[in-house]
Design a protein that fits this description.
The chain has 302 residues and is an alpha+beta fold. The chain folds into two domains: 3-203 and 273-293, Creatine Amidinohydrolase (Alpha-Beta Complex), CATH 3.90.230.10; 208-266, Orthogonal Bundle (Arc Repressor Mutant, subunit A). Helices cover 33% and strands 23% of the residues. The protein has seven helices and 17 strands. The protein has helices at residues 3-25, 33-46, 109-125, 132-145, 220-230, 239-246, 248-260, and strands at residues 50-58, 61-63, 80-89, 92-101, 149-150, 156-158, 169-170, 186-189, 192-194, 200-202, 208-211, 237-238, 264-266, 270-272, 279-280, 283-286, 292-293. The strands form five sheets. A five-stranded antiparallel beta sheet has the order 7-6-8-16-17. The longest helix has 23 residues, at 3-25. Bound molecules: cobalt (II) ion. Cobalt (II) ion binds at residues 95, 157, 188, 190, 282.
């Protein structure tokens, strides 16, 4: 791997791990979701990173919640909160996540432990030549030891410059996929674990978007929003970045137009189908004989 690129990846990883930790520490009783996510974005920049995303998800929501500018979600005791932080350096991405039980209650300790163990087991296997199904089976088997399941329709993914989901999906169960990992591949592994059915479905309206294809638009609102969105290249963008700049009315109109024309895709929150709790831990790594886990924080035990 080009040493300059490796340096960027490692820098992104360092910032991502630090901000994930600092953000997670702010998930306390009475904390505002909006304030914590604003804090995380600010910290990414202060630490010299570029924002790929700062997202969170509460309880049965597995992923893809980004507070809007007027969001009033306040964390309560025993909320099970996931923080998912993406940082990049010139498009080279570090993607990492962890889960916190608010208020120091201990109701969901096993779900979190199972997810940590699943991640650890997959990292242990992560080397050139290992088949994707093997990574999946290792994760599921750890979840099952606790009587849980992974969320089988969510998976890890390869990372490419400005592409958060590269060509390869890393399953969290034995998918029978015989594709092999290769030396130098950049991947994120993220077992979501739940006592529920292990399936998610989209729920609610999207606040996270990505450009699908770039083409001209006539509406002035749509044009402005597309220009703003392009600053993220092909990485996600969120409503409150737009509403704070253009106002809520123009943003809504612009987004609707861009969506209608197939220029952007929305990513609504993902809820476990039976409404069960979901925990998630995630690291990014470069595949080697011993993987380089570049989002590891010194306080991470997984
Ligand atoms: Co990820």
């Amino acid at each position: 791997m080009d040493p300059e690129i490796l340096k960027k990846i490692q820098k992104a990883g360092k910032v991502a791990a630090q901000v994930r930790r600092e953000g997670a520490a702010k998930f306390v009783v009475g904390a505002s979701a909006l304030e914590v996510m604003d804090f995380c974005e600010k910290r990414i920049l202060e630490l010299g990173g570029q924002i790929a995303w700062a997202q969170m998800a509460i309880n049965d929501i597995a992923a893809h919640f980004c507070p809007e500018e007027n969001d009033n979600t306040i964390l309560k005791e025993s909320d099970l909160v996931k923080i998912d932080i993406g940082v990049h350096q010139d498009g080279w991405i570090a993607d990492n996540a962890m889960t916190v039980e608010v208020g120091g209650t201990d109701k969901y300790k096993d779900i979190m432990k199972a997810s940590q163990n699943a991640l650890k087991a997959a990292i242990k296997l992560c080397r050139p030549g290992v088949k994707l199904w093997e990574l999946g089976e290792a994760q599921m088997s750890e979840a099952e030891k606790f009587g849980f399941t992974t969320v089988t329709n969510l998976c890890g993914h390869s990372l490419e410059q400005y592409h958060t989901h590269g060509g390869i999906s890393i399953p969290t169960f034995n998918s029978k996929n015989k594709t092999e990992l290769q030396e130098g591949m950049q991947i994120a592994i993220e077992p979501f674990v739940t006592p529920g059915q292990g399936l998610i479905k989209e729920k609610g309206i999207p606040t996270i978007w990505m450009i699908r294809k770039d083409k001209g638009v006539r509406s002035p609102y749509a044009k402005k929003i597309l220009e703003e969105a392009k600053k993220q290249n092909r990485l996600p963008f969120t409503n409150r970045w737009l509403t704070r700049k253009f106002g809520r009315g123009p943003t809504a109109l612009g987004l609707r137009e861009l969506q209608k024309q197939g220029i952007i895709t929305g990513y609504p929150p993902l809820a476990e189908v039976t409404g069960s709790m979901v925990a998630q831990f995630e690291h990014s790594m470069i595949v080697r004989d011993k993987p380089l886990v570049y989002t590891k924080h010194e306080d991470d035990s997984w």
